[in-house]
Amino acid sequence: MQIQCEAGPFSGWAEAYQRDGFVGNVPILTAALAARHRDEFERAEAAYGAPLHYVSKIHTIFMSPLDLVTSPTVLNMVTALIGPDILLLDVTYIVKEPCSRSFVSWHQDLTYWGLDGGNQVSMWLALSPATEESGCMRMVPGSHRLGQRAHADRPAPDNVLFRGQEVDGIREEDAVLLPLQPGQASFHHGWTLHASLPNRSNDRRIGLNAQFITPDVRPAIGQSETAMLVRGEDRFRHFREEIPANGDLSAERLERHRKLDDEMKETWRKA
Ligand SMILES: O=C(O)CCC(=O)C(=O)O
Fold first, then answer.
1. What's the predicted TM-score (pTM) here?
2. For the chain, which has fewer Cβ within 10 Å, the N-terminal or C-terminal residue?
3. Closest alpha carbon to 263 in 236, 234, 246, 240
4. Using one digit for the tens of pLDDT, what is the confidence trace for 20-77?
5. Residue 187's domain spans which residues?
6. Ligand 1: which of 137, 170, 268 to mutate, judged by most atoms within 8 Å of the beta carbon?
């Protein structure tokens, strides 16, 4: 499917990202294309027979997210933020159902990705309105510069995060909202403190989250992880090669995907 917007010039985005640890309102898709990708996502959910919320490595079983996260617009933006050699580590949908209590506690991504060194960035692309009412993300500007913070594990049924990990003592007045229209994306650094509140709207809040790393990043806890080279060169080969989707929900890829998803969740458990 065609990807239409062009986010450049990129130097302005890169400067804001270095300063704040995130950028928002980056145009990736027209509203019409965002609606088509949402439609594809909802049809895939029906075919999958279960919600696709937080299913890891979704780009290995489904073409729409694969096309989106490897589009030139997205990769040009990622290049501006972390350089020309890029591995795609994971892609998931993060969905908050209408009028639901799901929330995301204050956390930093890198604390539980099980990675060491290198550089990374996370993209969150809105396929429906992400507003204050629907529980868009909130970020603490500049928090990426302070490095890793202590997290407490407090698993809770309504917390989207697997372990319910949480950083205490965030001052609400230090946080800013990051609303996005369908087709816009935000990009944030793995040390940037972020969170989100429940969806009080009558629509689903649907985001496509993709995690990009530079090839010098290592899996830190010994397991053999998979990643996909999406631009440039991998001179390090720390990761096993990812096999991308070859269609939508093919039986062969689904079988393999079950193992990948389990592996990924095991990494988060141990990290
Ligand atoms: O979808 C959300 O509200 C939070 C997403 C998040 O924590 C992330 O993209 O790292």
1. 0.93
2. N
3. 240
4. 999 999 999 999 999 999 999 999 999 988 889 989 899 999 999 999 999 999 999 9
5. 21-270
6. 137
